[in-house]
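Exercise 7b. Backbone tokens:
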């Protein structure tokens, strides 16, 4: 009976390990990433390919040549909004008329650069606007509460059905250490639907040429317990890259 070559055994073990790692066999890769420091995994980019624990990282770039880029984590079972991808493709195929002066038409034309959620839903979206000489504090003011009031009034109008719960300033943006404004609010939809709760994060690119907004929104009742922790983890992980 022929003996087994030690070299053959070694190559077989190495090959099996690589295949298991590449395919995330039985969640081995995800478990390994969970044991490593988050900063190391993020820099390696592996958490964009394999989930790290219960989350995976996504990176969003501005559409149609807009500058600015951000990253954040989402639950590993969430997916990109396919209807948004279709709308973006249709938008890219058209010649846009920038001479339109109607503010309502321009507002209706805004598309998120990315949107994610459980299959069939959209719970988080990102909008990256091309701007000039944008500064968070100089453009929106040094008080995050006043900035939140301005942005909510701009979106919903002076008789907006929103209630501001909190507004804070934090340092984010990775190595750049740029400030962000974060505010939490509820949206009263009256008798037609249950109220919503949302958290928006506002940031400006280091070069002042992009204005980035991430918004996580769901039913007010969904922000409690483990479901609420998942939603807040998305917000907490947001940063410019």
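Sequence design result:
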């Amino acid at each position: 009976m022929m003996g087994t070559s030690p070299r053959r055994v070694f190559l077989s073990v190495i090959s099996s390990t690589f295949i298991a790692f590449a395919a995330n066999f039985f969640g081995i890769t995800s478990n390994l990433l969970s044991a490593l420091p988050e900063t190391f995994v993020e820099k390696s980019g592996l958490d964009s390919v394999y989930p790290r624990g219960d989350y995976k990282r996504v990176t969003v770039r501005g559409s149609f040549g807009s500058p600015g880029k951000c990253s954040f984590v989402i639950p590993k079972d969430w997916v990109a909004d396919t209807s948004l991808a279709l709308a973006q493709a249709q938008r890219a195929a058209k010649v846009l008329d920038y001479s339109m002066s109607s503010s309502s038409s321009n507002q209706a034309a805004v598309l998120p650069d990315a949107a994610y959620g459980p299959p069939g839903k959209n719970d988080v979206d990102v909008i990256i606007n091309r701007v000039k000489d944008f500064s968070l504090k100089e453009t929106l003011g040094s008080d995050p509460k006043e900035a939140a009031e301005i942005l909510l009034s701009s979106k919903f109008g002076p008789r907006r059905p929103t209630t501001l719960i909190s507004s804070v300033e934090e340092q984010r943006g990775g190595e750049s250490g740029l400030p962000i404004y974060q505010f939490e609010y509820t949206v009263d939809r009256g008798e037609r639907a249950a109220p919503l709760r949302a958290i928006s994060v506002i940031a400006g690119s280091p070069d002042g040429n992009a204005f980035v907004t991430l918004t996580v929104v769901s039913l007010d009742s969904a922000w409690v317990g483990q479901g609420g922790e998942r939603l807040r983890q998305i917000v907490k992980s947001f940063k410019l890259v």
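Instructor comment: The first strand starts at residue 55 and ends at 61. The mean pLDDT is 78.
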